Amino acid sequence: MAISKCWRTERQTDGSLYGKSVIEKISVYENTWINRCYKDGIPDTAPPALMAKRLTPTWHGIAIALLKNDVNLISLGFSPPSSKLEQLLVSEKKKASNPQLELRL
After folding, report:
1. Are 18 and 71 in contact (CB under 8 A)?
2. For 2-55, how does the pLDDT look when each residue is reduced to its tens digit (9 = 90+)?
3. Which residue range is the domain that position 47 belongs to?
4. pTM over 0.70
5. Is residue 86 packed enough to be buried (19+ CB in 10 Å), middle (13-18) or exposed (0-12)?
6. For 46-77, what is each residue's pLDDT tens digit?
7. Which of 60, 54, 17, 21 lies closest to 42, judged by CA?
8. How remote is the C-alpha of 70 from its chain's centroid?
9. Three-class SS of residue 18?
10. Number of structural domains, the chain?
11. Assign residue 69 a region: left if phi > 0, alpha if psi is -120 to 50, beta otherwise?
């Protein structure tokens, strides 16, 4: 039986570095809300109705997002990461819409 063909043992290097990106996103989330109207910092909890509509930031909401393994923090309002194919299509579209075409030799 060749189980080694099915079992993936090498470390995946593609994708986001979860620890670093999550910490950076939480920092961005915190700074955004502090700049808006929470000068004293983000509160620990808030009424559930406000948390459900994402009208107020809380550390409780950040903890729930991490417990749900939401590493992209989509539940806090961040957009999901784009795939490499989507990035390639966007760059090709920008090149096609550029009125100044490149000279090719």
Report:
1. yes
2. 555 555 555 555 455 555 678 888 998 999 999 988 889 899 999 989 888 888
3. 39-77
4. no
5. exposed
6. 998 988 888 889 999 999 999 998 888 888 88
7. 60
8. 9
9. helix
10. 1
11. left
